[in-house]
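User: I'll paste a sequence; please echo it back and then give the predicted structure.

Assistant: Echoing your sequence first, then the prediction.
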Amino acid sequence: MQTEEIETRFQAIEAVIAQLPEDYQPFGFFLRLSGARTEKSLSLTVGDIENAFSDGYKADLHSKFLVEHLGGALSASAVDYLLKYVVTSRKAILQRLSIDPARAPRQVFIDKNGRPLEGANVSTAFRNASARSGQVPPIGPRDIRQAVVAAYAAALTDRELIITLAQSEADSGAFAEET
């Protein structure tokens, strides 16, 4: 994808995210920032976040746990956003519903009723948001991931991309041996 194509695609993605129900927007923003896989992002738990940072990990690319769990490297802004969501937005939903954090769903992303977001509901929300924003064909989570990957690839030279991919493979192999 060329830079202009990528920019146009992200404008369309932003338009769709803006049309998502309010409680689904944080998930859309996270996908937009991270390019993480949908199913992995939906299964991410608050405990995962706490464990990833309990050993002194800084909110950056170095949390091997999050990289392995979400299926790719995360930008510092994606990790910062994830942490901010857990500490503020998610907590506010639970407080509004008088749900004790100890009894709350384990999943990070929850809806306005305090229930974990589910794949089918996310797909429906994106399909409806795409229709409201006039996006044909509809934009879904997979399209967001593809756009983020294309943007990362376009930002790197061929040499840098090869080095990054090689390092990613080496890191994931090393992580798999450690666990």
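The domain at 3-178 is CATH 1.10.443 (hpI Integrase; Chain A). The two ends are 37 Å apart (CA to CA).
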